[in-house]
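[READ THE FOLD]
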Amino acid sequence: MNIFQTAEQQANILPEKYRRMTVKELEDRAKEIKEKLGNKLFIPGHHYQKDEVIQFADATGDSLKLAQLSKENTEAEYIVFCGVHFMAETADILTAPEQKVLLPDMRAGCSMADMANFHQTERAWIKLLELFGESMIPLTYVNSTAAIKAFVGTYGGATVTSSNAEKMVTWAMTQKPRILFLPDQHLGRNTAYKLGIGLDEMAVWNPVTDQLEYEGLIENVKVILWKGHCSVHENFTVENVIEVRKQYPEMKIIVHPECRREVVALSDMAGSTNYIIEAIENSDPGSLWAIGTEMNLVKRIINQHPDKHIISLNPHMCPCLTMNRIDLPHLVWCLETLEHGRSHNRIQVEEQTAYFAKMALDRMLERP
């Protein structure tokens, strides 16, 4: 590590003063700075964030909602994104150049997004062209890096979220007969299956071995799934479903489509974060629910609905570790640097990458 890398790493280490502050002191500072900066500051918060952070969010939502709000926001000078790295990148791509997007803790990444990098995708595309010719269009889950979004935008594809995946896959199939779906194989498989595409028409691209995993006639492939996954949602299992059915026969099971296909198949309902939230909100008092998604959100839903019996589908599930990087001390540190006229942990996507990534994002956002 050279001197510049060492300096950069040290710049991202939380100063000790914030570790010593009490919760009340941190909350008071956050309130004070928010009031001082007013409309110059906008704090979007993803549903998976801790309550200690969400309480200061100006807007909460899933990836689609936050992407739309980022694009629509023209007033804020500073956007302090309480989420993970790829979300802050998306906000930077969609907002004006003079607006500054900041991430309170640069360690807040996404293991799924890291499962597909540009060089792997470029190699895969070349090999897949040899197999399928120009018959493919790429789609990428928004849980991907700006470089992957740019790759998809370059080749005429679009981004998708768990809220609009069916709509975007349907659109893509009108453009080309085959789809390369990055980087979450489970969302891609569950979406394609729901649209009537058979499991025997889906292949898996393994970026580690640089090989297509498929048994059958190659011309039958309609969807190529990138071999990636969410480390949280993949931990919900068939055994979890069986155990809930045994203990609570009347309980409805609702899961996120990032879960494995067999888990989704055995559940009563599957849908995006907003879909899950709205399903619980609209359910009758006294109803029973097992939820298969991130634990911070499940705990928040449980607290918001004391009139219902709600549990996690996996009682041993932990919150998303990378989402949990954003905490109150890091948020206050970020806000105080803004108060002093500095931009701490600014996220800036390189101009050419942003240009092509925006193409992919706009193709999604243009379809309400």
Notes: The chain has three domains: 3-107+323-352, 113-230, 233-312. Residues 23-37 form the longest helix (15 residues).
